[in-house]
Amino acid sequence: MLGFVMARNFLKQIPVGITLIELMVVIVVASILITLATPGLQNFIRNNRVTAQSNELSSLIAYARSQASASVNGYQLIKTTGSDSWTVEVQNLDCSPACVVKQVTFENTDLTAESGSLPLIFNDRSVLSSGEVTLAVEHEPCSGQRQRAVLNILISGSVRRTFESCSGT
User: Fold this and answer.
1) Residues 6 or more apart from 50 whose CB is under 8 A from it?
2) Residue 40 lies inside a defined structural domain of this protein
3) Which of 31, 72, 86, 96 is least surrounded by CB atoms within 10 angstroms?
4) How many domains does the structure of the chain reveal?
């Protein structure tokens, strides 16, 4: 019986909880891990933004191409630039002036024509009138790998997309 009482008293003396030093060590380790993970997370978000916007642009091109075959004068894609964004409009050329059928606004990226020119005009046979065009969608500021999508639009209207790192990095 005496051993039971001593064991019970011993259990009462065990401290419960954590010390301030243990808490500070955990906070320091967590802050170091967050500091190391932040740049990778920012690049991940930028890469996903460029991928999503190049997908959206590809689908707008495919839409304009498919609708052009049912029209008399064709469809065109036009880029307009705002203060901190750019917009792509799909316009039906059968209207006078051209009717905006679809409009998508893109932010935090830039669209440039590397070869050929904008607007992209698809005639009534769904063929790109201006010839082959190469467009680039890149994040602003472009500072890492895979933050640039290059869309090569063939005369047939099909789109080939590749990803590359930013120039100068």
Assistant:
1) 109, 137, 138, 139, 146, 147, 148, 149, 163
2) yes
3) 96
4) 1
